[in-house]
Amino acid sequence: MGVHGYNKTIIGKIQYTNAWPIFYYFNPDSLCEPTEMITAVPSLLNKGMNDGSIDIGALSSFAYGLSSEKLLLLPDLSVSANGPVQSILLFSRQPIETILNGTIAVTNTSATSINLLKILMNKALNGNPTYLSIEPDLKTMMEVADAALLIGDNAIKASWEDHGLYVTDLSAWWKEWTGYSMTFAVWAVHRDAVENKPEIIQDIVKALQASKHRSLSDLNPIVGEAITTVGGTQDYWMRYFENLCYDFGKEQRQGLELYLRYAHELGLIQHEVKMEMWEENTRIRVKE
């Protein structure tokens, strides 16, 4: 155990349903060194990954872009969709083309989805709406805006209601417009952690990948838990999880690169993002 062995390695876990398969069978107690897992909403995890208080874990794609210089992306782990995602939905009274300069209510929980909406409205439709950040409640949002963006379990529950609104799936829209898949969350490791504790990082990556493979080989336990916690049917959740992609291969990387490039072009991210991957033998070279 090296000099850093006494610092517990901190792992960030997203609490949203869509990330469950990667964490479901992940057991921190089985790792080679002591770790601590923090479960939180993306905004808190994003902050921890940026300031280094979280060593390794999940963060939203946009937050990765903001902190990319400090982070390395982990292979084979993401929450992506090659088409509809079913949990990032824009609700509107009129077709979206009619509210190019209208008002859209957004939740303050996910920068990735809000910035995806800004990219699509601006680049795909040449629109320039006003965005209002309020609590994620569809009824309240539609009282003050022409459209409302909901994500995660809020979006899923609203999609089950009979509200007579137009529903636009942002991931389906992105796929239709760009031809690429959309990556919503990535797994990354802070460069300091790679340098200081390479063994435990490698152990964590393998354990996360193993959890993913085991989850996807039989979705029934996860589907059961989703029904208990969120509601809905076996059929809905089976389709939901089967529809998501948890890999991070070439196709997912290309889609994410495009998203981050557009975010930079619109001034949402100040620097050009150069994506770098962690590999098993990664050691950060210390500059002399």
From TrEMBL:
Keywords: Lyase, Menaquinone biosynthesis
An annotated GO BP: menaquinone biosynthetic process
InterPro entries named in the record: Menaquinone_biosynth, MqnA
Major enzyme class: lyase
EC number in record: 4.2.1.151
GO MF annotation: an example: hydro-lyase activity
Pathway given in the UniProt record: Quinol/quinone metabolism; menaquinone biosynthesis
Reaction(s) this enzyme catalyzes, per UniProt: chorismate = 3-[(1-carboxyvinyl)-oxy]benzoate + H2O
Matching Pfam families: VitK2_biosynth (PF02621)
Family indicated by similarity: Belongs to the MqnA/MqnD family. MqnA subfamily.
Role: Catalyzes the dehydration of chorismate into 3-[(1-carboxyvinyl)oxy]benzoate, a step in the biosynthesis of menaquinone (MK, vitamin K2).
Name the record gives this protein: Chorismate dehydratase
The organism of origin for this protein: Paenibacillus antarcticus
